[in-house]
Amino acid sequence: xxxxxxxxxxxxxxxxxxxxxxxxxxxxxxxxxxxxxxxxxxxxxxxxxxxxxxxxxxxxxxxxxxxxxxxxxxxxxxxxxxxxxxxxxxxxxxxxxxxxxxxxxxxxxxxxxxxxxxxxxxxxxxxxxxxxxxxxxxxxxxxxxxx
Length: 147
Description:
Blueprint (H helix, E strand, L loop, with lengths): L7 E7 L3 H9 L4 H5 L11 E4 L3 H6 L6 E9 L3 E6 L7 E11 L2 E9 L6 H28 L1
Antiparallel strand pairs: 1-6, 2-3, 3-4, 4-5, 5-6
């Protein structure tokens, strides 16, 4: 049996204050822009969606989408939500913020929970998501925050 897949861990430094980054990270206006999600509301327990099918996304259709339930909104330090497809195990996405000084914030990103899955079957999905977080989502967050 192979080892379980590790959490996806990334860090990004943003040239803005902690409070500003928190607002961009969690506001209803900005989250759809940097995360590319649907039906986001800044409320504990709210479920929003990640729709990979662009046609369905354009039509507002969430069938087949990844579900994300907001689990923690601990301003201005931690934003955490679940990440799952109904009927499959849940993983967890978190953004922990740390003020480096008055004008710089470190975002510590983690997507955990991969040990629940058979590593050989999930490695391609894990690798795809790892690449997406690193090359698309986190740079989008940085761009939105620094605009």
